Amino acid sequence: MKKLLMVLLVLSIALTAFAAGKQEKQAADDTIRIGYVSALSGDTALWGQAGLNGMIMTAEKINAAGGVLGKQIEVIGLDGRGDPMDSVNAYNKLIDEYKVVAVVGTNFSSCNIPIAAVSDVKKVPVIATAASNDLVTVDEKGKLHPYSFRLCFIDSFQGGKMAEYMLDKGVKTAAILTNIGDSYSVGVSEYTIAAFKAGGGTIVAAEEANSGDNDFRAQLSKIAKSKPEVLFIPWIYNDVSLISKQARELGLKCQFVGFDGWDSMELPTLAEGALEGAVFCSRPGFSTPEAKAYGVEYQAKFNIGLEAECLYGNDGILWLAQVIEEAGSYDPEAIRAGLENTTFFDGLLGEMENDPLTHNPKRELAIFTIKGADEVFVEMYN
Questions:
Q1: Best exposed site among 239, 242, 299, 323 by fewest CB in 10 Å?
Q2: C-alpha 104: how far from its chain's center?
Q3: What residues contact 214, with CB distance under 8 A and at least 6 apart?
Q4: What angle do CA 243, 109, 297 make, to 5 degrees?
Q5: Choices 3.30.565.10, 3.90.550.10, 2.30.110.10, 3.40.50.2300: CATH for 31-153+287-364
């Protein structure tokens, strides 16, 4: 009798496991799983959470309209904490455990560069959001990472164009402060300096520091002595606010110029007036009617402040939905081919075409200025 009960118990456990496995497979068959990696905790969590929220809100709309290929989209977000190793681990987990067919994120070049190398092996496409370093899609020898893509323009483009923009405004002398520990800042600095010099401008001071130092007065004092017309600050917004305040305290009166790392609605308030009249480049953000309407809906749903990363989340999932529909397949290889050969995609960040040789999108540059507590759209520049 005991042996019979034991056999029945084992059989019951096996049947339960089989049923659970069947249910999991059925759930997987009924959904297309798409992953998201970014900082969902820490100092830049407002960006990561915005990107995830944007994906979720847009996925809900797609699902309500019938889904993609008759299947529902399931968004799975994991926290990469803005750290390269944690982001790689999150990318691997999304593939190995959650069986996603593609991943959106991150918005940090330092995280996407190692993810790109791993994607070569995993063979699951990843679409970086605001990771703009050139090495996100190609290695140091220029060899393409076939499964790595991006939604944003690249550092060589924005660095060169902002240098040209200031030269067009009649600026002759500039200084630059680089975050030497950040691949994004280093890359933008190199291209900005090269383009500014090539256009006839003079770099009168080039200083370096590290995020987390919190005291940039030594570098800023040297910059102040060189009396530049503008100071390029290719840093992330939270450091930009601190740098700008310390610069003004030291009496530095030149105009501050930034890049897409400045793009946070919190920056003007954090800077406490130190960035008044500063200019920076980014995507169009919420300056278009479509993006404004999306922002209203987003805030009503989540009751939080607007961050442009939600537009990236929206565009990332819409781009994937487009290529899956066009291919008639959600196999990762079919998705990769579809992304690579995209000749037209129209999202909330504007129209774009993917370059199949570099996996970089062709976009225009939006110029913003800071007035009071607002980031105000100025013009498109290309």
A1: 299
A2: 9
A3: 242
A4: 85
A5: 3.40.50.2300
The answer to whether residues 82 and 42 touch, using CB atoms and an 8 Å cutoff, is yes
Q: Does domain 156-282 have CATH number 3.40.50.2300?
A: yes
- Torsion-angle region of residue 170: left (phi > 0), alpha (psi -120 to 50) or beta? left
Task: List C-alpha distances in Å: 116 to 42, 93, 112.
Answer: 23, 15, 6
The Cα 132–Cα 296 span in angstroms is 27
- pLDDT tens-digit readout, 302-342: 999 899 899 999 999 999 999 999 999 999 999 999 999 99
How many residues are given for the chain? Answer: 382
Distance (Å, whole) CA 137 – CA 113: 8
User: H helices of 215-308, where?
Assistant: 217-226, 237-249, 267-271, 289-302
Residue 193, phi-psi category: left (phi > 0), alpha (psi -120 to 50), beta (remainder)? alpha
- Joined together, the tokens standing for residue 249 give 């305290």
